[in-house]
Model the fold of this input.
Amino acid sequence: MFGQILIGLAQPFVLSAPTYYSSLWFSPRGRVSATAVASLANPLGGALGQLINPFLATSPKDIPYMTLY
Done:
């Protein structure tokens, strides 16, 4: 439960960071692409984690080790 609260508190900062950094580092022409790539990094990382899990747990006894504590 504590982890969910901590992530919930940090999420607004993580989700708003791509627009802030793209306005600092990129020209107006490249901001849209930079913001799109940076915004998609979070869900693509989660999807990649879901795809990797079956390779980490090769037997049913390995399933508890897939959870991060």
